[in-house]
Amino acid sequence: MFGGIFGRQKPSPAPEVTAEVAEALVRADETVRRGTDELGYATAEFGEVDTRELAAALTQARTQLREAFRLNGLLLDDEPETPQQRQQLEAGVLATTAEVDRLVRGPASEFATRRAALRDAPTAIARLRAETGDVAGRVAEARSALATLTTRYSEEAIVAVADNPDQAEALLQFTERSLGLAERRHTAGRGEEATKAIRVASDSIRRADELLDAVTDYEVEAVHAESTLTAVLADSRSDIVEARHLLAAAPDHEIEGATAALDEAVAAAATGEAARDPFTTLSRLRAANEALDRLVRERRSRPERERLRAHLEAALADADRQVALARTLIADHPGSTGPDSRTRLAQAERLLGGVTLVEDPQAALSQGRQAADLAAEAAALARRDLEAARMREQEQRSQWGGDGGWGEDRGSGWGGGYGGGRGRRGGFGAEGVLGGVLGGMVLGGILDGLDDFDFDFD
Q1: Is 403 helix (H, G, I), strand (E, B) or coil?
Q2: 260-269 contacts: CB < 8 A, separation 24 or more?
Q3: pTM for the complete prediction?
Q4: How is residue 306 annotated by DSSP?
Q5: CB neighbour list of residue 323: distance below 8 Å, 6 or more residues apart
Q6: Is 418 in contact with 457 (CB distance < 8 Å)?
Q7: In this structure, what is the dihedral angle of CA atoms 153, 155, 158, 160, given to the nearest 10 degrees?
Q8: Are the beta carbons of 421 and 409 closer than 8 angstroms?
Q9: How far apart are CA 387 and CA 391, in angstroms?
Q10: pLDDT (tens digit, 0 to 9) for every residue of the chain, 458 residues total?
Q11: What 3 state SS string does 26-93 have?
Q12: What is the CA radius of gyration of the chain?
């Protein structure tokens, strides 16, 4: 009654926004607030230069947040909107708050992670020192295994792992230097540089461990190759006998030539010298065996399922060995092997991985043998690259001094610190490995500007 007397009406209830919009606004506001806090912490620890991107992201996020609140204000004012208009305004709020989250959350989380790493630096250094000791304890074991390999296999057969103990030892020395640098930087309050040195040390330990594993794994692979060679020899002799029976019934010039070639390959594979490089011997024997098989298949169309299965098993075992050898050559010498060998290896792995999907045994055998051929070609190309790298290093040594250094005053530097003239075979392996570890990490900027970092392996 009194409202009517004084000309006033009961106020209308305020419009309400959906729960989704309300939650999005609160979440976006909290994201900006926490991002601002993180920017302050990060700037104190890493400086304004490193945090420029986060600062710029927060500036954009605040603009988006203001727009979200403006749109929400339109939803709450006294001006009525149609359902379609309200839907558009709500969608605008959700879109701008989502952009706030996208702008801030990633960069802020990255700095939070980096700050956590700084806090954990002493613990990480202690852990990596313990890992370094464990890996260093395996070097002597790897040298002993390599000595055994040297007595059983030819120099060409073990080229992939011949330098691995020396390379691992050099990497461990570098790890110790990196950890020492990390400690000094952390003590001096230069935490970001300490974190970078810790990352480099961790990668060096991992690489050294892989090099030592490769020696042991190679010994196992070589034993498997010898076992496979024995099976392939027996199968090839059986093929020769069968081919001669076929020739007795119906002479054929091509089959006769292929039989003689396989017979020669079998005789060569049975010698002691051939056993010193079972991988190469297997490749040659496989090629001769495949040539005879192809000609015999053309002459005979009867089912050969059982025989094909036996061939397939041997071919796949051989392909596995060939792929493993090529992979080891490339992985252990990333700085010295080129794209050709890597392409062949990728093709071989793809074919070998798809053999189990082939239902026809003959097609599967062909695919397995093709994979082995490609892997063998990859290994040959990798060896070519390694030999070229070795020749280049020898030329450099002849130019800069007979001992492989950069002169008498710098014999412990990159040119010859643990290399030329002191028992390294070829001398190019360690530089290739260290180049792979340091090229993209240290030289690319991880340790740029660290004035007291010394890469010499004294």
Answers
A1: coil
A2: 261/288, 261/291, 261/292, 262/236, 262/288, 262/289, 262/291, 262/292, 264/288, 265/236, 265/289, 266/233, 266/236, 266/237, 266/240, 269/229, 269/233
A3: 0.41
A4: H
A5: 345, 348, 349, 352, 371, 372, 375
A6: yes
A7: -170
A8: no
A9: 6
A10: 334 444 444 444 445 668 899 899 999 999 999 888 878 877 876 678 878 888 888 999 999 999 999 988 888 887 888 888 888 999 999 999 999 988 988 888 777 777 766 777 888 889 999 999 999 999 999 999 888 888 888 888 788 888 999 999 999 999 999 999 988 888 776 777 888 898 899 999 999 999 999 998 887 888 887 788 888 888 888 888 888 888 887 788 888 898 898 888 888 887 767 677 887 888 888 889 888 888 887 776 555 566 777 788 888 888 898 899 898 888 888 888 889 989 989 999 998 888 877 777 778 888 888 999 999 999 999 899 988 988 888 888 888 765 444 444 444 333 333 333 333 333 444 444 444 444 434 433 444 444 444 444 44
A11: HHHHHHHHHHHHHHHHHHHHHHHHHCHHHHHHHHHHHHHHHHHHHHHHHHHCCCCCCHHHHHHHHHHH
A12: 34
Tokens of 77: 């004012």
CB contact at 8 A, 158 and 146 = yes
Burial (CB < 10 A; 0-12, 13-18, 19+), residue 164, is: buried
CB 161 within 8 A of CB 332: yes
The token pair at 277 is 């490089």
Quick one: how far is CA 56 from the chain centroid? 34
Most distant CA pair in the chain, distance: 129
Residue ranges covered by each domain of the chain: 8-118, 120-230+314-458
What is d(CA 369, CA 362) in angstroms, rounded to the nearest whole number?
11
Q: What is the residue whose two structure tokens read 């945090």?
A: 51
Q: What is the CB neighbour count within 10 angstroms for residue 275?
A: 18
- Give residue for tokens 């007595």: 151
Residues with Cβ within 8 Å of residue 178, at least 6 apart in sequence: 197, 198, 200, 201, 204
Look up residue 341 and give its two tokens: 């060998």
Structure tokens at 147: 């000595």
Nearest-CA neighbor of 446 among 194, 207, 114?
194
Read off the amino acid at residue 188.
Answer: A
Query: By C-alpha distance, which of 38, 182, 50 is closest to 116?
Result: 38
Q: How far apart are CA 71 and CA 38, in angstroms?
A: 27
Give dist(CA 362, CA 333) in Å, integer. Answer: 36
